[in-house]
Amino acid sequence: MFKLGDIIEMKKPHACGTNRWEVTRMGMDIKARCLGCGHVVMMPRRDFQKRLKKVLVPAEKVALSAEPNYVDPKQQPHF
Length: 79
Hints:
By secondary structure, this protein is mainly beta. Helix content is 9%, strand content 34%.
């Protein structure tokens, strides 16, 4: 399915025109950040799974130089 840090594609594009999202939080709710404009959305897992089209790039294979707006989950501070 999908996991933290994956770059995914949703069924409908975002208002900014891009369709690439980064999964930034997982739990009962899923939080994703648009890689085009940086807008963050949070939705219930069930709704997220209905709107998900496919995983474009798994978290292990993301090229940080190719994704300027990507935030590596391994480098995020833990509170």
